[in-house]
Fold Cysteine and histidine-rich domain-containing protein RAR1 isoform X1.
Amino acid sequence: MEKGQKLRCQRIGCEAMFTEDDNPEDACRYHPSGPIFHDGMKEWSCCKKRSHDFSLFLALPGCKTGKHTTEKPVITKAAPSPSKPVSVSTPTNDASSKLTCLRCKQGFFCSEHGSQVKVGNLKPAVNDAVPPAEINSDVEKYPPAPAKKIIDLNQPQTCKNKGCGKTFKEKDNHDSACSYHPGPAIFHDRMRGWKCCDVHVKEFDEFMDIPPCTKGWHNADPVS
């Protein structure tokens, strides 16, 4: 190994570039334990930090510090939480419970009731007596769209594309600078993978090693 050669840290939550000469005791911030996936929620078992969005979940800062390392850590797997018994409601109570269930009322799929409640037309009726001039004036009161963000071409930024996470400068950005997954990530029946490239594995560390399948621009502010 050449002296001063840049290496990539293999700890989960870090993956920073470092050299052996510049690797103090608190250089690395990482997650020592593996994740838990349950009912659409992603959670780090070591610090209980959680998120529904996979990109935000991977961006959660680590809870432990130490030296950077090129050795792949052994992930401590958390024991799955016991499943709660599902109560089966009678047909008589099912219709009334749908009317009081918050998820059904908001039009979301509800695992307890099995279907969405059809919500009536929520579009407010426009009073014919209101002059068109008043309606247009209300529309004009809404604030204009925010101005576009101005970035210094030499300012270092972190790419938020899934599977990338590299630091880049806008002056060096181009249409094949970034290797990433356009997604989404899929977690189903203990399998982890990416829908974009149809690759699925069982272990989380194997999932993190799936190579990106798409080239494009680095993006520090992706649309979620």
Remarks:
- The helical segments are 54-58, 91-100, 102-105, 132-140, 204-208.
- The two ends are 40 Å apart (CA to CA).
- The CA atoms of residues 22 and 66 lie 13 Å apart.
- The longest helix spans residues 91-100.
